[in-house]
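User: Can you predict the 3D structure for this chain?
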Amino acid sequence: MQDRALRNLGMSVLILVGMKVLFRWNVSIVGSLVLTFIVWVVISAVNRR
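Assistant: Here is the predicted structure, written as structure tokens:
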């Protein structure tokens, strides 16, 4: 349980860092959608294990 909470926290941090990087690079909304899709795929793969 604690391991899953830590993993979710790590995912949240990764998402926040990714968003900051995207905003810094001034990437379009499409870039944000792509990042969100990648993160969703990673989370799905982790939860499947």
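DSSP finds two helices and no strands in the chain. Residues 2-48 form one domain.
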